[in-house]
Design goal:
There is one protein chain. The protein is mainly alpha-helical. About 65% of the residues lie in helices and about 5% in strands. Strand 1 and strand 2 form a beta hairpin.
Length: about 110
Amino acid sequence: MSVPPQLLTPPLFNSRDGQVLAFDPGVTPKEGGLPGLAVLKDVVNSINLFGIIAVVAALAVAGVMWAWGSHSGNHQAEANGKKGVMISAGAALLLGGANGIVSFFSAMGTRIS
């Protein structure tokens, strides 16, 4: 007779009244568990590089638009240039900090019990 895997893992209990909240599946990340992990990391790094290059181009275009709008008195172009600069800066922040952001939340996730 086979026992379902859910019953083999210890349940998580509510400390106040002893109710079962959920079952712990016991899954943890393991580096090297799948073939091709190095290739996948290279692909993600390349995508990140292309993203950063695109952000630099967008920042340059938005900066030119902001300067042109300010110089010519075109308030719509100036506002769009400012918005583009801020969006480009935010995208650069997210792309540059992607590893740190994921690591931070992954570490926070290990503390959940």
